[in-house]
UniProtKB/TrEMBL annotation, chain A:
SUPFAM superfamilies: Periplasmic binding protein-like II. This is Extracellular solute-binding protein. It is found in: Periplasm. PROSITE patterns: TAT. It comes from the Bacteria. Its main location: periplasm.
TrEMBL record, chain B:
GO terms for cellular component: plasma membrane. It comes from Antarcticimicrobium luteum. This is ABC transporter permease. The keyword Cell membrane applies. Belongs to the binding-protein-dependent transport system permease family. CysTW subfamily.
Amino acid sequence: MDVVDQLGSLKEGKLSRRKFTKSLLTAGIGVATAPLATRMASAAAEDQGTFFTWGGYDIPELFVPYKEKHGELPNFATFGGSEEALTKMRGGYVVDVSHPCNSGIPRWIASGLFQPIDTSRLSNWQDVMPELYNLEGNIVDGKPYLAPFDWGQTSITYRTDLFDLEGEESWDMLWDERYTGRLGSLASGGDAWWCGAIKAGVDFKNIDTPEAFEKIAAAMRAQRPLIRLYTDDTTTLEQALASGEMVAAMTWNSSATTLKAEGVPVRFANPKEGALTWVCGLMIHKDAPNLDRAYDIIDSLLSVESGKFMINDYGYGHSNGKSFDAFDEETLQGLGLSKNPTDILAAGHFQIPQTQEWETKMNALFEEIKAGF
Amino acid sequence: MSGESATSANSGSPKPPGTGRLGRLLQRSEAARGLSLLSPTLLIMFIGVAVPFGILIVMSFWTQIGFGFDTSPTVANYENFGERPIYGALLKRSLWMSSAATAATVLLCYPMAYFVAFHIHRNKMIWIVLITLPFWTSYLLRVFAWKVVLGYEGVINSALMTLGLIKAPLEFLLYSQSAVVITLAHAWAAFAILPMYVSLEKIDKSLLEAATDLGDGPVRRFLRITLPLSMPGVISASLLIFIPTTGDYITPALLGGPDGAMIGNLIQKQFGAINNWPMGATLSIILMLSIAAIALVFMFVTNFVRKRIS
């Protein structure tokens, strides 16, 4: 920990230890493609449930009820993209709860690695907004596989003092040649490719056509020389925006909210073409070794306490309708949220689940483009 | 190998410690004894290297279909490697970057190894420990440390800006191939110093004295005696660095940026987001074969050169 602290303070001065370890963790998990390493990591507290999630959700603030009940936090393992997580679990990595998003639901269920959720075991389920779990492919035989937790947008976070905005906010900002080498992007095709589709004017309904592939690939190729860094580590993007290394980057809501809280002059754009919208949630592994704790993890995440933290500190929407009661309409609007998620989700472009073949093809192509081909 | 002669040579010695039929069988030939000593290692090598390698080879002839595999053998993946330019280009780039890193490491570490071998006479152990000190921290932390040094608001940029030498931070330092090469050269330094130190240490000092007596100046003496005799160390250091760095994954992932990606990153993506395991297996095998080929050529050439100069 000492070394980590020193490095962290060296790096930014204002960087908190939690954030630095968070970024280390994300990277570390990336290295540890061998399931053994993560198994060792989760062996710390054998009897706690394991939550396999995006970097940034592995924090005590989201597990207050869980900790009250069990005295300890669950074990965490983090990933940078949900495709990576799915492949890892298909490779035999067993966790209790994982954290996919709406576009992955049918494929995650088809992998046969998950079990339907018995909603009667979740005390907060009656407050969960039905719009969020009535998603395409989620309800099988009357039972949901995914318990929705967070929802939000993928859009552009930009420095209001460094980015000279011409006209309206738009996806063109990330294709602005004036800022060559000072733009950033998320690395996973699950976000970037879809944003490219919005930019290229491709309707999501037609995203699985050769013409769509061609158009989006052309847009991504045009953007590639402008991009300083593609990464799934949001901390890296946030630091680059804070230092002025980047003037605009594709991010989720949380980056803008976090940076604003640190006093960095940023805005989370509301592009005129519409942002990319998504819902993510929790699925239970079919062989979850601690099934009771798995339900406790989900219940804790769905609680109002967690919801308030998600809205206030990360700027994400929460699935529990009661979480919004603590905020007035003005605050929510400032965060780009609403008590009625459908308003927000329908205003943007909502991802449509695709086949595994499409995902493989898209990711392979996007990797080639990122590498400069 | 020569089991017969070993047995006859052994017959006169006192009764071997191994008793029972199995013990006697094992004692009978030198080869069997050697094998039985090796067996734990062999077993681990078999389970840990040969079996996964076999799986990789078999898998490279499969085809990915959705979540499953089509197991009918095909060379489509290898054809794919030839057809799509990304694979060859990334492989070439990886080989180039790791050659650069290897050359940089060996050149920078040779003087250090030389110094410790020839000019330190007391407390050599402490010097060796000092040299390996950076390796007491994790590899990941060392990579992050370089991110701090090379970064936009990093040590180098802030120093140059404070001195007024530059107005805006130098952006090419981080997220570039050079960042990866620099980091690799530092991170693998101990693996270069130690073998070169050992072979320099072994050089008979009287040879150097003889060369001086016979009229060689320091430069000629170094080129004719020290360098050829330390070649085994240089070769093993080069291979020790070249082989693992070609497939390195974490350094380019953190410091490489879009232009600094290496083949290891692509292999990881094949097993991750792209979800095409057979293609990942194919790439791994091609990478291994290229490294093996280059290592062989390298060894052949250095052997040839060594024979010529000695």
